[in-house]
Amino acid sequence: MNIPAELRYTRSHEWVRQLEGNIVEIGLTDHAQDALGDLVFVNLPQVEDAVAAGDTLADVESVKAVSDVYSPVSGRVVEVNEELLDAPQRINEAPYEAWMARIELSAEPEGLLDAAEYAKALEEEA
Amino acid sequence: MEKKTPLYACHEQAGGKIVPFAGYLLPVQYGTGVIAEHMAVRTACGLFDVSHMGEVLIEGPDALYNLQRLLCNDMDGMQDGRVRYSPMLCETGGVVDDVLVYRLAQDRYLVVVNAANHDKDVAWMQAHVTGDATLRDLSDEVAQLALQGPRAQDILLRLASAQDIPGKYYSFTAHRPVAGIDCLISRTGYTGEDGFELYCAPADAPALWNALLQAGAPDGLIPCGLGARDTLRLEAAMPLYGHEMDEQVTPLEAGLGVFVKMDKQVPFIGRDALVARGEPRVGRVGLRMTGRGIAREGCAVYCDGIQVGRTTSGTHCPYLGHAVAMALVDSRCREEGTPLEVDVRGRRIAAEVVPLPFYRRSRK
């Protein structure tokens, strides 16, 4: 399972990438896309939406089921990856490139895992 | 405790994601994923383990009479080697199960039932069988593989001789060798494609599975799981028990009126109730989701803001490339082109009534 060292993670299988300033990018991990199976639909938040850590940020649907994507951080949505609306399979193909939303932080993120901690969390889950 | 089919080890070896289903441990998909499996069946061929299906033998001089009472379709006039579909009704006109009947001989029939209903069906049939006929539950003595897709016949021809392969849809041949294994070869399926269902002894199932996969590999044959089985049947608008029908829904409401023979010689169980209930006030429709969203089972359906029914199944169709659903709705809203709305987790998504099936294979 691919777990890039430079990202941070949640136990609900989102990843967080630090961009410039206080902007972060959010996506679903390799483990999440593998567990969900072929994704066929993505519902993204809207730009300017305020989110708190733990809120539902988006949802994704595979052929069989729907799953919520939770915001790992608190802040304001500044950009969404509209490419995913027509090509949700990008999340399966390249989970760490297929970011879903960019969020301007309103508070320092708390409780995120580094790659080693996330790998350990996956082991515990298995 | 779930049972394992005789092919369990094959699924594990092939990387199947195993889930419990109807009392069995079965693969929901393999490494290729549901979409690839779905597309393989539409464009090449797929192989399914359907050993969880139940098989009940009914035999004796009164076997046909009993089937006529138990089933609302007409089994009279069937020839040996033919297969017929029928709902089985309860006294209230609702559906106990839907089954396939194989005529082995004039006084011997094989009834294939849904795994989820197996125990209930056997009890129901046992309680209603009369006269000189006996039931035997063969479910644990029979494995079943489904080879489905436009390449199915070519693949089967590599392992069986042409004269042993049934030519007509809904016909079968019994005790014929496939890769040297004694099989009942049935030209039936649950995918909307041409294909075969092969019944064999459980001990022979792994060898048959492997022989088919090997023979079909050049044609793109891959193993397929329950996920693709469901999207394929839904795209082909084939009803599934527990979704499009159950004991509360009559076959007339479920759009299965063509399999209800009100005037057959032996009146079937549930006939009086169907007469008493009169014209169905609800019926099955196909919906194409025109808005963005995927309706699943049990979503409320609205017409002009008023709830008119519920979805019974729904998914994104890999081959058609859009989302569809089947729904039971007020008979007044069933006309093609009627704009409806479906409540998908709190959002009203636009949908339109479209003709069924959503997908129909082109015939050669």
Descriptive terms for the model:
heterodimer, A: 126 residues, alpha+beta, OB fold (Dihydrolipoamide Acetyltransferase, E2P), six-stranded antiparallel β-sheet, three-stranded antiparallel β-sheet, 4 helices, 9 strands, 21% helix, B: 364 residues, Gyrase A, domain 2, Alpha-Beta Plaits, Elongation Factor Tu (Ef-tu), domain 3, 3 domains, six-stranded mixed β-sheet, six-stranded antiparallel β-barrel, 20 strands
Describe the structure.
The complex is a heterodimer of chains A (126) and B (364). With 126 residues, chain A is of the alpha+beta class. Chain A has one domain: OB fold (Dihydrolipoamide Acetyltransferase, E2P). Chain A has helices at residues 30-36, 83-86, 89-93, 115-125, and strands spanning 8-9, 14-18, 23-28, 39-43, 50-51, 56-62, 66-70, 75-80, 101-105. A six-stranded antiparallel β-sheet of chain A has the order 1-2-3-9-8-5. Chain A has a three-stranded antiparallel β-sheet with strand order 4-6-7. Chain A is globular. The mean pLDDT of chain A is 94. With 364 residues, chain B is an alpha+beta fold. Chain B has three domains: 3-50 and 142-235, Probable tRNA modification gtpase trme, domain 1 (Gyrase A, domain 2), CATH 3.30.1360.120; 54-139, 2-Layer Sandwich (Alpha-Beta Plaits), CATH 3.30.70.1400; 281-354, Beta Barrel (Elongation Factor Tu (Ef-tu), domain 3). In chain B, 19% of the residues lie in helices and 34% in strands. Chain B has eight helices and 20 strands. In chain B, a hairpin with a 2-residue loop joins strand 2 (17-21) and strand 3. In chain B, helix 2 (34-43) crosses helix 7 (226-235). Chain B is globular, with a radius of gyration of 20 Å. The model of chain B has no long low-confidence stretch (mean pLDDT 97). Classes of the chains: A alpha+beta (126), B alpha+beta (364). Chain A binds chain B through residues 37-38, 40-41, 43, 61-64, 66, 85, 92, and chain B through 28-29, 33-36, 38, 227, 230-231, 292-294, 296, 315-316, 318, 323, 345.
